[in-house]
Fold this sequence. Notes:
Elements: E1 2-6, H1 12-18, E2 26-31, H2 35-45, E3 49-51, H3 53-58, E4 64-67, H4 74-83, E5 87-90, H5 98-111, E6 115-117, H6 125-135, E7 142-150, H7 170-187, E8 190-198, E9 203-205, E10 215-217, E11 223-230, E12 235-241, E13 252-256, E14 259-263, E15 273-277, E16 284-286, H8 299-310, H9 318-337, E17 341-342, H10 357-361
Parallel strand pairs: 1-2, 1-4, 2-3, 4-5, 5-6, 7-12
Antiparallel strand pairs: 7-13, 8-11, 8-17, 9-10, 11-12, 13-14, 14-15, 15-16
Helix pairs in contact: 4-5, 5-9, 7-9
Amino acid sequence: MKVGIIGCGNISKIYLENATRFANYSIEAVADLVLERAQERAEQYHIPKAYTTEQLLDDPEIDFVINLTIPAVHAEIAIRALEKGKHVYGEKPLAVSLEDGQRMIETAKEKGLMIGNAPDTFLGAGIQTSRKLIDDGWIGRPLSATAFMMIAGHERWHPDPAFYYQEGGGPMFDMGPYYLHALVNLLGPVARVTGSAQMGYTERTITSQPKFGEAIKVETPTQINSVLDFEKGPVASMIMSFDTHAHQLPHIEIYGTEGTLSVPDPNTFGGPVYLRRHDHKEWQEIPLSHGFSDNSRGLGVAEMVDAIQAGKSARANGELSYHVLEIMHGILGSSSEGKHHVLSSSCEQPDALPIGFDEKHFLR
């Protein structure tokens, strides 16, 4: 399938580097609001065409668009691409608003096209190994979970961090999708959420280059504590924070009737995965059962192309991403309204990837 990338910012590099690994799609064009940036990426990664966004959308040879724009325009670009007859896979989150997310899903259905969304890290070796351990009964029936993403903020390293502190940013919308996609993959969809959110600082100072010393106005909560009740019964406690300098908490742990599973960082594809059953005195590191343990961003695109060609639903699909979007909005809404949020959306728990999927989709 011939693919075009819209948005040539920082994240585009890894998609372009990894595209050569997958046999079922190729990047044929890149586009950006700033044409010179698209031309620079095209030259750097030997991409045949450098376009404006409109030129790429009008190219009849492009079947599929990877939308790497900023969250504020995810929906606009995705809908325009769908209306031009192209499948769309976007960076997270699906959209800023639920209304825009719903429009994206509905447009894809109307056009008979597929929409998918990052993150695809839950398709990697670490979380797929964790899924296999749960499915095979190693911790018994899952009862509860914890999930923690607690850092001091992106202004310390990102070259242009301001959008992380605008609406549609913050730790929930930036990092929440990694944790929530992993949790839904492991435990199924969520029925109800409760949250408490606050803003640790109203202004941040950039300490990275090239904007060192510039002030950022914070417009979104940066400390969010929440409880998630899953449809199948488990309950999870989750903290998303840009206000934490250090901690010693795990990324994700799943607690079952027969033991505990320590799940690796869902912002990565690899391990380590640790298991401690009720009758063991020590934790065991479990060998990874699946492939794609390195940075394999673009794996979701390859899996989605597979699904399109087979007439099936992709695992990193729009319904999953919309459900995650509602979870995030629901947590923040619960905090501001002072009550539980009952989810109006649901989704299918993604099928586990078969062992050997990497052999089918590695280097051309």
